[in-house]
Amino acid sequence: MTQRTSLLTGGAGFIGSHLAHKLLEKGNRVIVLDDLSTGKFSNIEELDRQYGPDGRFKFIFDTVLHERVVEDLVREADEIYHLASAVGVNLIMEEPVRTIETIVGGTHAVLRCAARYRRRTMIFSTSEVYGKSMDVPFREDGDRLEGATSRHRWAYACAKSLDEFLALAHWKQTRLPVIVVRLFNTAGPRQTGQYGMVIPSFVRRALTGAPLSVYGTGEQSRCFCHVSDVVEAIEALMGAEGATGEVFNIGSTQEITILDLARKIVALTKSSSPIELVPYESVYGADGFEDMQRRLPCIDKIGRAIGWKPRRSLDEIITDVAAEAK
Ligand SMILES: NC(=O)c1ccc[n+]([C@@H]2O[C@H](COP(=O)([O-])OP(=O)(O)OC[C@H]3O[C@@H](n4cnc5c(N)ncnc54)[C@H](O)[C@@H]3O)[C@@H](O)[C@H]2O)c1
């Protein structure tokens, strides 16, 4: 069997590095293109050491916005996982220009090159595209409800929606084999709390006895999926013929409020940290932050396509994150 080459943009990040590991274990050759803006070389250092010398792993330190670089790598690859993106609520609120340019410009460059060489491409979108819709559980063909353009938070959702439109347009117009995945909250080892990700930041604070800050009333709920479950879904979808030209939710259906999440983390880590409620305005300023109240996926479609559903619990996620943080 010939060896497949997988190109992972953003492969030095949280999800990308887990995916790189899985693909290498499967026998693929892996190329990572990453500018290390939110990712870390240490996430892939072991892979570089283990698989670099025989040419099965290659890391390119550059940006997806450099189309000439992307083109050379796409030509070498059989399949593309386009994960590179501005991520995290803090970064999105603080650097709105970079957020939009990276998401839209990066995906545009990747899809243009993929179209030139006819490469199978997976585009990483987000549950944020459902916006403020309360029509839960969110279905892939459901309506989206995004807020005003003066509220920067929605730029991320809007840019990712445009990425989806562009990917599906390539499929419609030239039958470029694309797959769009909408990830819901994903968590596990190697995720950094630095850019506003809730589980790693709560766990780190709980382990040091610092207060856990819950924004708003804490009644907003989320579903957290273990990164190992997510990576299994991603890999299976890439190999599923019937997935081409389709959009899939990937996430857990176990809902928890952020206040209960904080309580659970304090209990599981046997912490003495207090939990405090903090108004959104004091964190994100007066120009507005609107949160989504619930973010519950319908995962029937991916279940029908590849028989996937999450296997790991929220307790396992917290235990794994705490073990790494210690
Ligand atoms: N983690 C989640 O809960 C979640 C939820 C929904 C969607 N997603 C999507 O999954 C993908 C991966 O997210 P993650 O959680 O692993 O975040 P991450 O920040 O760990 O990974 C993103 C990677 O992209 C890299 N990157 C950013 N800009 C780049 C550029 N211009 N050129 C090259 N590399 C660049 C970063 O350095 C980083 O390594 C993203 O597209 C994100 O939008 C993640």
Explain what this protein looks like in three dimensions:
With 326 residues, the protein is of the alpha/beta class. The chain has a domain at 5-186 and 226-251: Rossmann fold (3-Layer(aba) Sandwich). It has helices at 14-26, 45-51, 67-76, 89-94, 96-117, 153-174, 198-208, 227-238, 258-268, 280-284, 300-306, 314-325, and strands at residues 5-9, 29-34, 57-61, 79-82, 120-126, 178-183, 186-187, 212-215, 221-223, 225-226, 246-250, 255-257, 275-278. The strands form 4 sheets. A 7-stranded parallel beta sheet has the order 3-2-1-4-5-6-11, with helices on both faces. A two-stranded parallel sheet has the order 7-10. Helix 5 (96-117) runs parallel beside helix 6. The longest helix has 22 residues, at 96-117. It is globular and about 55 Å long.
Key terms for this structure?
13 strands; binds nicotinamide-adenine-dinucleotide; 326 residues; 12 helices; alpha/beta; Rossmann fold; two-stranded parallel ribbon
